[in-house]
Amino acid sequence: MKFQKDYFLNLKDYDLVKKVRLTLSHGVVHMAPKGKVYGNVLLSYITLPFVISDKLLDAHTNRWECREIARLFLEQGYAVDVIDWTNTTFIPKKNYRFFIDIHNNLERLSPLLPKDCIKVFHATGAHWLFQNTAEYTRLLDLQKRRGVTLTPQRVMPPSHAIEHADVMTLLGNDFTESTYAYAKKKTYRIPLSTTHTYPSPNQKDFDSAKKNFVWFGGSGMVHKGLDLVLETFAAMPEYNLTICGKISNEKDFEDTYRKELYESKNISVVGLIDPGSKEFQKICDDSIALIYPSCSEGQSGAVITIMHAGLIPVVSYQSGVDVADFGKILKENSIEGVKNMVHEIASLSTETLRSMSLDTWKFAQKNHTRATFSEHYKNFIQELLAHHKNHA
User: Fold this and answer.
1) Are residues 16 and 120 in the same domain?
2) Under 8 Å CB-to-CB from 116, ≥6 apart: which residues?
3) Count helices and strands in the chain by DSSP H and E runs
4) Is the same domain home to 239 and 158?
5) pLDDT tens profile 29-79
6) How large is the average pLDDT for residues 6-22?
7) One domain, residues 267 and 292
8) Beta bridge partners of residue 29, listed in sequence order
9) Residues 382 and 292 in one domain
10) Number of domains present in the structure of the chain
């Protein structure tokens, strides 16, 4: 679904905001619907999607999703102001009916908003306390195994967003929601969208692929379990691992695992790769499964992308993605747990692997697209509007 640019009525203001955003990151994107305006919405997320071309939206799911949230409110006749979630200087000067935030601005701005403003926490990850604890636990485990202390990569600042919210929208599964359960706030689950889709894997050569595995992820190599995967495959030369991720961004991790990364014949490091490239498609065609023992996610975009490509997801419960019978949830996020699951996948029959791969692809096509995200978020907005009308 393409973003309808004709929602921008004042292009001069938009161009000015673009300049401010690129220099200070404290700009505000103002948008107004055509026709009657029923109220104002403040969206504290990211302004980048509004100052880049459509072709750059595929770099991360949050870019399109942020624009779509704004578009859906515009479609309902609401003017939308967008600020970055890291903006600590913005002061509201409008009578906002709805405020959506992904982290700390809920706590900062709630006292400055009208009392009848409905405040929404859009949770894109697990609770910060769980996430930080999980990351530090992984780093401590690594310290004990390898005798090194690596720098945390995905530690979030403290936030009381859920406490200040009236409702929560959530990208995630039962695990993700459980980390916020203590707050007892009404929760609306929104399925993560995707940046890329791929043809059916039905023509894959599953016999040749069954011993080839992939790790694919963004920053936070230890957080996302690459250390466990590397140590597993280094000890299992009969299986192959392809790593898609920018290892060089984390020098201490790269130095610690230099031997496994660059001296193991069965381990290939591709590095940062465009999921829309032919190279990525070939890696997926030649492989059977994703190994992803992450310790904390909202709903992993990497896992969703790989599922669209037809790779069987072998993931942690904490990846935030439900895999039903077509994938495997790691019984434990450990070297032994990964080893056992690799053996289990590789021992399955060709027809079983084909069926699991096709079911994975079909599930992703049905549940994790831009259309499904838009449908669920639109339903959420309509519930918000009905609630606001009933309490006006």
Assistant:
1) yes
2) 97, 388, 391, 392
3) 15, 13
4) no
5) 899 988 899 999 999 999 989 888 888 889 899 999 999 999 999 999 999
6) 38
7) yes
8) 82
9) no
10) 2
The letter for the amino acid at 126 is: A
Query: Is residue 291 domain-shared with residue 331, that is, in the same domain?
Result: yes
Strand-pair partners of 213? 241, 289
Count Cβ neighbours within 10 Å for each residue of 179-191 and write b for 16 or more, e otherwise: bbeebebebbbbb
Q: Which domain holds residue 49?
A: 5-128+154-193+370-390
- DSSP for 231-290 reads HHHHT-TTSEEEEES-GGG-HHHHHHTHHHHHH-TTEEE--S--TTSHHHHHHHHT--EE
Average pLDDT value for the chain = 92
Other C-beta atoms lying within 10 Å of the C-beta of residue 337: 17
Region 98-117: mean pLDDT is 96
Tokens of 150: 């690596």
Spatial CA neighbour of 46 closest among 124, 117, 158, 141? 124
For residue 81, what are the contacts with CB-CB under 8 A and spacing of at least 6?
28, 29, 30, 31, 40, 41, 42, 43, 94, 96
Q: Can you tell me the distance from the alpha carbon of 390 to that of 239, in angstroms, rounded to the nearest whole number?
A: 60
Between CA 184 and CA 191, with CA 189 as vertex, the angle to 5 degrees is 155
HSE, CB side, 13 Å, CA atoms: give it for residue 369: 15
Element (H, E) at 312: strand 312-315
Average pLDDT on 306-319 reads 98
